[in-house]
Design brief:
Elements (H helix, E strand, L loop, with lengths): L1 E7 L12 H8 L3 E7 L12 E2 L9 E2 L1 H14 L4 E11 L2 H8 L3 E6 L15 E4 L9 H12 L16 H4 L13 E2 L2 E2 L9 H20 L1
Parallel strand pairs: 1-2, 1-6, 5-6, 5-7
Antiparallel strand pairs: 3-4, 8-9
Helix pairs in contact: 3-4
The structure holds ligand 4FV.
């Protein structure tokens, strides 16, 4: 079972997305346990401040190191083998390979920043920094949720047959997915490609691979 811990100032952010579909089923099946730790619970000053003004001036606020490091230590105390990952635009890109690696862990802790970011001295307390992409979110929570979703669906037993991760096959080779079609055969004058109606599975596989390669060249070339 994967023990996922999320360090965040907004634990309520995760309630709804984890309450439906594949994540819900995986949690109910005991494939994964998700605990949200509220970083504000580790604030010790009477105003429970989690942020402060940036040294050197500039706009916005920065997350204070003390409550974040205390939360990390609490997560490690709960699970000594947990891998602590800070979600930040400065991190290494998140990939399917990374999702597969995390799906093989027993413990994963996702640290979510807010405001302009987290005090840099926290970085020494995490195992890695991970970015969802070169754009700026209002918080690390949407990024953490995407990572969690990509990992949970790879847990053995998380997907039913119809949803098998085998479909990700081309993802293994870094190829984009092939185009998918379902009934009706003709939709507003658009026909399903003939080869898909042929029943010739070797021919269909060849066509799908060609489509995946062409798309990858065009869109990731
Ligand atoms: C982000 C990303 C991201 C930056 C400032 C949260 C925000 C705020 N995280 N991949 N892109 N984080 O934009 O992971 O603290």
């Amino acid at each position: 079972m994967l023990h996922a811990q999320i360090l965040t100032l907004f634990p309520e952010f995760f309630a709804s997305p984890l309450s439906c579909s594949i994540p819900r089923r995986a949690i109910d099946a005991g494939l994964v346990r998700v605990d949200c730790l509220n970083i504000r619970d580790f604030c010790t000053d009477k105003h429970r401040r989690a942020d402060d003004v940036p040294y050197g001036g500039g706009p916005g606020m920065v997350m204070k190191p003390e409550p974040v490091v205390a939360a990390i230590r609490d997560a490690r105390a709960r699970d000594a083998d947990t891998r602590v990952v800070l979600l930040s635009p400065a991190g290494r890109p998140f990939t399917q390979d990374k999702a597969r690696a995390y799906a093989g862990l027993s413990g994963l802790t996702l640290l979510c920043g807010r405001y302009e970011g987290i005090d840099e001295r926290v970085v020494a307390h995490v195992d890695e920094e991970l970015s969802l992409g070169d754009y700026v979110l209002s918080g690390g929570e949407p990024a953490a949720l995407s990572v969690l979703d990509a990992v949970i669906r790879l847990l053995p037993g998380a997907l039913g047959d119809a949803e098998s991760a085998a479909q990700d096959s081309f993802a293994d080779e870094g190829l984009l997915d092939w185009p998918h079609y379902t009934r009706p055969e003709v939709f507003e004058g658009q026909r399903v490609p003939e080869v898909l109606l042929s029943g010739n599975h070797a021919e269909i596989d060849r066509w799908r691979r060609a489509q995946a390669q062409e798309r990858t060249k065009k869109r990731r070339g």
